[in-house]
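Collaboration report, partner site 2.

Our partner group contributed sequences for two proteins of shared interest, and the home lab folded both. The records are reproduced in the order in which they were received, starting with the first partner submission.
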Amino acid sequence: MSTSTSIVTEEEQKPEVEQIEIWKCKATECKAWVRKEFVTEALPTCPLCKTQMVRSYKHVPVTSKKGNKKFLVGKKRF
């Protein structure tokens, strides 16, 4: 009985990532962060602890955008 083993390289294991601009909380014990496009103020405060936030960057996995989703609200579809 033979078993085949597959060798997976490191490149295949790592998901594709992109660098995004974020605002992160200044407090060391707070891990909150918000994407830049969701912030409406010039100098935002943390939504969790109300401390000042600073600009930064974060690497997040790339997601594919799925279009043509319809949301059911009451009996109308949007």
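Second partner submission, folded after the first:
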Amino acid sequence: MDRTTKITQFIEERCLVEFGTDVTPQDDLFKVGVLDSFGYVQLMAFLEQEFALQIDHEDMLTNVLVSLESIDGYVAAKLAR
């Protein structure tokens, strides 16, 4: 399973939404009510564990990832380093 699919499945299962039906990969997940602050922290923990990333608190707070596209791009950039 590829990176984007893993992230998509996590959000869909945890937040009970379906990309393409309920929301798009470009939607602001906070504004459409999919994510709240607790869900965001859970998502960051998942990304760290699943992809063996180190996400520091400053990065998490200053670069708030609001869409599936931005989350996936962030993970891709971190993995490329």
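Feedback sent to the partner group on the second submission included the following. The mean pLDDT is 93. The first helix runs from residue 3 to 15.
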